[in-house]
Structure formats: structure tokens, C-alpha cells
Amino acid sequence: MHAIKCHSLSKKYGRKRALDSITFSSSEPKIIGIIGRNGAGKSTLLQLIAGYIRPTSGEVTVFAQNPYNSLFVSANSMYASDEMRFSPKFTLQETLAKMAAFYANWQAERALKLMTYFQLEQESYYHHLSVGMKSIFRMIVVLCARCPLTILDEPTTGMDVAVRKDFYRLLLKEYIDDPRTILLSSHLLSEIEELVEDIVLIHEGKKVLHLPMEELREYAIGVSGPTAQIQSVVAEHDWLMKKEITPGVTYGVVKQSDISLEMFQAKGLVAEKVAVDDLCIYLTDGDRGGINRVFS
Ligand SMILES: Nc1ncnc2c1ncn2[C@@H]1O[C@H](COP(=O)(O)OP(=O)(O)OP(=O)(O)O)[C@@H](O)[C@H]1O
């Protein structure tokens, strides 16, 4: 059974098309990175999967059910974002105690140990915590709930570098202890690259690609050398990005399926793999150019 299945999934807000005909699915437990720039549609996709909002068209199913208004999906999934709220009446300890009633696999002991490790006071209230501390508390709740579908929408907001590292380690340990489907949205692929098995890259509401992480690492080659020589190897339409760095010298990025690293190197050109974050920028930059365009 598919944990998640989206078919031609679209969401419009008034005339704004936030999500445009997205199709993707995932069956076995996996950590999937949902990557995209600001406003790409990541949260909209995750909220549709969580059943928080309804699609304008297309279909989404979670464990073969429409997630919107589904008690079954609610009981088996958890969506955490910085808009997640907890009752202001309860302390952190009381909030955790309530979770046991809702989530069958609730890890009470681990939650308390994590509270101690991250120096969260049990008698504090969520609305009194700092931005980073709120993120830590949400992470404890969402991971200790051990739902078959765990949705983390930019989970590291406000966390300092050390806590981010701890969070990713904890996420991986939790996943190994109890494999489940985890959707993790982020702007920074390099930060989660060692963690995720699959990547869904979204741009302006559309799916650009859905690939295993290893394939994304092999997706493109960066090459530099004399412009005329490079042009003799690569056809104009094959470039993901190309720019003249000094007169007569070009740096460009080309899909590896069209051409191999060795083919460039055999011609004496400098060719190397492209960092995944840079690749995502090239795949989503369109004709916007760089920030320099603003100053020119
Ligand atoms: N409730 C809403 N009403 C109107 N427009 C919305 C609403 N929610 C999202 N949008 C618009 O839909 C688009 C996608 O937004 P979304 O929040 O899904 O992007 P995102 O990839 O999560 O962005 P970010 O990384 O900046 O959080 C944006 O243009 C946003 O302004």
C-alpha cells in the first residue's frame, strides 16, 4: 500500500496557483526531502498530504484514504511546522502526558530524556519558549509520537548549529529504531543530503524531479574551459546553466545522461560533479539570472 500518492494534485488560492499538477508517490518507509525555494509550494504540498487543506483538483491519498477530515490519517500521521500550536493551559510535561492518549506508539521515556538533554524545563509553557526551543519541543513531540507518516515542515527554524546536528542525528536514530515515512521540507539540501533517501524538487508549484539522492548526486557535471571548445562538445539545448566567466572562458552545467565526465576530461576540459545545492539553484533559476542583475 502506498503511504502517499499524489496524482495531478493542484491547489489554487484565488488566482494564485500554489501547486500545479504534482504527481508522486512513496510506498515503503523512507525519508524524503521536499526541496524548493521560498514560495515554491512545499508547505502547500505537505498540508494537502496532512489533510489540513483540500486540493483544488487532482487527488491525494494517504494509506489509501483521502486525508481531508480522515480520523484514520490523523491518528497515523503528524504534521509539524512553526504554526503548530499547543494548549496554553498545559505545561510542557502535561502536554507530553496528553500525547500518550492520542498516539499509540508514544515514547514517553524517550520524550522525557530528550527534554532533559535539550534543557527544556518540564514546568515551562510552550508559548514562553524561544523560537529555537519551540522547534526543539515540536521535534520531540513529533518524533516520539512515532506516527507511520511524519511530516516535518522546515523543522530546524531557529535552532543553533549544534542543535541542528543533534536533531538530524536524532531523526536518523529514531528512523532506524522505527522505520516510517518521513517527509522533510528544507531550502538547504546540503544540510539533509546525508539523511534523505529521495528528493522531490519543487519550483513554482511544479515538480522538477523526484529522484533517489544517489542519482541526484550523479545528475550533472560542471565544466569549464575555452568557450569554443566547450560549444563543440555540448549542444545549446543541453545546458542547465552556462556563463562566460572571463572573455573566451565558459563555466557551465550539463546533464550527466547527455555527456560523461570522462568525455570532457578527454578533451582537456576541467569537469567535476556539481554540489547538490548548486544543482537545485540551476534547476530552478529559470531566466532570473543572479542577484547581480539587480545592480546592473
Ligand atoms: N493561505 C494562502 N493564501 C494565499 N496564498 C497562499 C496561501 N498559502 C500559500 N500561498 C501562496 O502559495 C505559494 C506557495 O506557498 P508555500 O507556503 O506552499 O511555499 P513554500 O515552498 O512552503 O515557501 P517557504 O519556503 O517560503 O516557506 C506562495 O506564493 C504563497 O504566497
TrEMBL record:
Domain ABC transporter stretches: 4-229
InterPro entries: AAA+_ATPase, ABC_transporter-like_ATP-bd, ABC_Transporter_VariousFunc, P-loop_NTPase
GO molecular function: ATP binding; ATP hydrolysis activity
Pfam families in the record: ABC_tran
N-terminal signal peptide: none
Domain of life from the UniProt record: Bacteria
Record bears the keyword Phosphoprotein: no
CDD domains: ABC_DR_subfamily_A
Keywords from the UniProt entry: ATP-binding, Nucleotide-binding, Transport
SMART domains: AAA
Keyword ATP-binding applies: yes
Protein known as: ABC transporter
Lineage: Bacteria, Bacillati, Bacillota, Bacilli, Bacillales
